[in-house]
Specification:
The protein is of the alpha+beta class. The chain folds into 2 domains: 83 residues, 3-Layer(aba) Sandwich (Aminopeptidase); 132 residues, Aminopeptidase, CATH 3.40.630.30. It contains 6 helices and 12 strands. Strands 1, 2, 3, 4, 5, 6, 7, 8, 9, 10, 11 and 12 form a 12-stranded mixed β-sheet that branches. The radius of gyration is 19 Å and the shape is globular. The two termini are 36 Å apart.
Length: 243
């Protein structure tokens, strides 16, 4: 399992690694809350090209976070909805066949199998992606939903300050509409409120109408500005940093 590498030191650091197990595409992630300089992006692009990647992608970025990348020549790969839950009313659903429990390291293979069924190849997690989601915030909650002893869904939720982040939610497709996702989301929201969060953020693909409808039904509201994953092909990247 490979975690993201740090490309530069100091506050203006960038992290990189293969995009969800695809070793031809790099993910380049900025330090949260810090705007990378054009010089650091220059160095990162050259480094990614030297490592043999054919393209670079960013994680989902806010409008403000996107600006230095767009200035550097990145373009939008995909827009995402961004939603917020105010943690006023939290759904509580007890599924007759499903129970929730703490996720364990030995659950990784089964969790990733569910994840692979729930997401297309571009978005699905590998082990490194799952580890990064769990380590993205100072504290997190990893819960799995089981039915007849088998894992059928999971969520990873993190907390940073007063904000909670539903980092990942996946349910086996044959159980869509049966309340498994609602139970997992309720667990995520309840944990976030107990941890002192004032709201919870989640993002989803603009094409994922089912997820969007579920989130809105459970009290999430779309933010004015969404997120975007940006991309930069490396075939035409310069071999030297720009001056």
């Amino acid at each position: 399992m490979r975690r993201l590498d740090t490309l530069s030191s100091g506050a203006d650091r960038l992290r990189s690694g293969p995009w969800r197990g695809d070793h031809s595409v790099a993910m380049l992630s900025p330090n949260p809350g810090v705007t990378p300089t054009q010089a650091s992006l220059d160095r990162a692009i050259v480094e990614m090209q030297a490592r043999g990647y054919r393209a670079v992608l960013t994680p989902a970025l806010t409008v403000i976070e996107q600006q230095p990348f767009l200035t550097h020549g990145f373009t939008v790969h995909e827009h995402l909805h961004l939603l917020r839950h105010p943690l006023v009313e939290i759904p509580s659903v007890r599924h007759p066949r499903v129970r929730l429990r703490r996720g364990r390291h030995r659950d990784a293979a089964a969790v990733l199998d569910v994840d692979g069924q729930a997401f297309d190849q571009f978005w699905r997690f590998d082990r490194a992606g799952l580890a990064d989601a769990r380590g993205a915030t100072p504290t997190h909650r990893f819960r799995v939903a089981t039915a007849d002893g088998n894992i059928v869904g999971y969520h990873v939720t993190g907390r940073g300050g007063a904000l909670g982040y539903l980092q990942r939610l996946a349910v086996r497709p044959d159980l869509h509409g049966e309340g498994v996702g609602t139970a997992l989301i309720g667990d995520s929201l309840g944990w976030s409120r107990r941890r002192g969060c004032t709201s919870v953020m989640v993002n989803t693909q603009e094409t994922n109408d089912r997820a969007m409808q579920l989130y809105v039904h459970l009290g999430f509201r779309p933010e004015l500005h969404g997120l975007a994953v940006l991309e930069h092909p490396l075939d035409g990247a310069s071999s030297e940093p720009a001056g």
